Amino acid sequence: MKKILLLIIFWACIGVLQAQEHFSAASFYPVPNSGREVLDFNPGWRFHRGDIPLKADPLQLDDSKWELVNLPHTVQLVPSEASGSRNYQGPAWYSKRFTVDTRYQGKRLSLYFEAVMGKSSFYINGYKVKEHFGGFLPVSIDLTAVGVRPGDEVTVAVCADNSDDPSFPPGRKQYTMDFCVFGGIYRDCYLICTGDVYVSDANEAGQVAGGGVFVSYEDVSDQKARVNVKTHIVNDRESGCRVVVESTLLDAVGKQVASTRKSLSLSAGSDGHVMQQLTVRNPSLWHPDTPNLYRLRTSVYLNGKLCDAVVSRIGIRSIEFRGADGLYINGKPFGDKLMGVNRHQDYAYIGNAVPNNLHWLDVKKMRDAGFRIIRSAHYPQDPAFMDACDELGMFIIVATPGWQYWNPEPVFEERILSDIRNMVRRDRNHPSVLLWEPVLNETAFPESFAQNAYRATHEEYPAPGCYAAIDDKSKGAMGYDVVYTAPKNEAFYRNAGKSCFTREYGDCVDDWNSHNSYSRVAREWGEEPQIRQAQHYARKDYGGSLTVDQFYKSPRGHIGGALWHSFDHQRGYHPDPFWGGLMDMFRQPKYSYYMMMSQRDPHLHLEQADSGPMVYIANAMTPFSPEDIVVYTNCDSVRVIVNEKDTLVQVPLLEEKGIRHPPVVFKGAYSFVDVRALHRAGKPEQCSIVAEGFLDGKIVARTKNMPSKRNEQLVLTVDSGLPLRANGSDMVTVIASITDKDGYVKRLSQETVIFEVEGEGELVGGREVEANPRVSRWGTAPALIRTTTKAGTIKIKARLLHPGIQFHPQAVIEIATLPAERVALYRELPVPQKTEIFGKTEVGEIDFNEIERLAREEQERINEMKQVEQQQRHFESTEKK
């Protein structure tokens, strides 16, 4: 049943709540009663996978049988292990109808798509109005310019084609790439309404170092800072006007700390920039450990009345790379190694169609682990991800789309340079941006391109704090600000006078075809592989890839590195997913996550993330658990008490240089024979491992493990971060754990769990992607839940697919959803799908003709893959010891 709605307002006091929105829209946060409205355009799209003929008549578009979906949307749900290009590639269509409210008379209307994957075509009422090449940067459609007026019935249609296309980056065929492009309108969409005199969008304006609001900083210190503001105003009127632009800086509690006004005269149909400077006394500076943020309110007055206003969330800070002296933040040397991870926008089932709240949670999980930097692999990340990095204190390296492919045709470089300029325009105000990576990942491009890419970056950011990075092996590397290389190349970067960083480390395969590695460990493989992975990342006594230990032995000029990779992810060119993540595709941690967490400073306490001392026992006390008890801790010493009787104390073995908190190993301390003896003696409660961490002689962290006994329960937990919003887009992972009566997870259990969802939510995926029923792995079965557009309660139920007399648990958990933060515009909504355990599958019948065709093409793919192997071997040396 369809819900016919014209305009939904989700709460009464909209002005107050809009001011508290967590994520920006088209780079800005709203100002109530400013004359500007930004509507959530995500809900209520029609979707068709495949191609259609489209005529220049909206009545000819029969989308009545198309699926109803909300954005962000992926063209096809995939299993949690769907590597090897099993995802759909080809055209996909979206359509949405709405009526323009008559109260928008005299207003300018535009559609803002954060990204649409691949080659995309945009139609308004059947007429193509724009074509876009590339899948990672915004696209704007000026509805007013194409004749849309208040009262009009409007049909928006979008063709998103993620087929392989060598004319724009990444350019390489997906089945030869180390990630998947998935497809669709996989990021947010907004309808933006302004007056005819307004602050522009930087990407839409297309002006070098201009458009929108551009903020930069000078003379930053604890005593004062100068904030430079460049604002672009557009006059769409048929007559000239004179405006006053007011820039006001507000601190975290809304107190005004600086303000300035300046007038600007604009002729009819023209635009111009206003340059202003604010001086802030005793600024609260942005730093990854103290990510203080300000709100810069830009107000435009016409004839004394407010005609437009936007808020930019900024952080006052300075960054400098001083060659051998390394990184300086706010004029002070950064006293640590800058350790981090790479991150693909990829999640179980939904691919890259990740909602804003999960982007935020990804950053939070990495910040909790103690990381301070993320490299965006290998494209600009979602704007919500950038907002989260600002808020949570996570530096980011923004990379242009590209991966091991160069096309000598001029149009290819033209489109790359366009991407570079647009990613800088989009992300230039984020204090979290540490480096720009304007060159293509692991690609043999010409030196002239490296020079052009560098020039474009600095032209777009002609202010202090702009740094571009490149591989040491790339042509033109010496002309860049920062060079990617391994710590071993000390002579190189000392002679070059460059600060250096390692863009990827940790992976260590047998060869680039088989892809076997002790760094690549699926969580369900259990303790021994997980411990091996963690030790491999920490410190090892064999050759191959870099470790945390080696970074801490490098000089200051080598500032740190980013692990490959934060989370397991799908890949195009190999049937196995990349299993080298610290967490799986549902963000369930492996032991290596806690090993990395143990590297954080125990004396550093953060407001925005978990911090301080920690201790973790990497032993589940199963019959097959290792005899050595491994403990990850950042404490001075650790005491382990086994079975309430054996007390063992160790001080971590530290070297003068190297890993700060090596894993602590208690040799031969665990024996399942002892567990068995206590159980037989009727003393199972004594079976335990307790670990206590000490700082300065005091216990500051404690944890306890016990062996899981008989299966007794299903326990549901919610992997939540921000409060769930009823916007039809937010998602949350719910974990069903098989436990004993005391709640200890039965890690070796393999049960099949059925999920049912009632109320204001729906389950993402069913039998066709092995989402429901879901087989438990390493004792847990995850489910992904999406909210509806109505605030209320989501009830999740879980039970076994095959219950029996001995074990028939059921579990229920409820999640409250809050009203959406933004007004949404839609006519119809998807109806939450009921749980169908044995529904239809999309796999279909086996097509033997298709199999033969694929076999004929196999040799071509083999040849292409050999080229990939050669390229990866070539660039591997920047990541090795």
UniProtKB/TrEMBL annotation:
Q: Where is the Glycoside hydrolase family domain?
A: 723-799
- The molecule here is called Glycoside hydrolase family 2
The record's listing under Gene3D superfamilies reads:
Galactose-binding domain-like (2.60.120.260), Glycosidases (3.20.20.80), Immunoglobulins (2.60.40.10)
Question: Cross-referenced SUPFAM superfamilies, in alphabetical order?
Answer: (Trans)glycosidases, beta-Galactosidase/glucuronidase domain, Galactose-binding domain-like
Q: Name one GO biological process term.
A: carbohydrate metabolic process
| Enzyme Commission identifier(s) | 3.2.1.23
Q: Where is the signal peptide?
A: 1-19
Organism of origin is Bacteroides uniformis
According to the lineage, what is the superkingdom?
Bacteria
Which keywords has UniProt assigned to this entry? Answer: Glycosidase, Hydrolase, Signal
**What GO annotations for molecular function exist for this entry?**
beta-galactosidase activity
Which protein family is it in?
Belongs to the glycosyl hydrolase 2 family.
| Record-annotated Glycoside hydrolase family 2 immunoglobulin-like beta-sandwich domain positions | 213-317
- The Glycoside hydrolase family 2 catalytic domain is annotated at 326-450
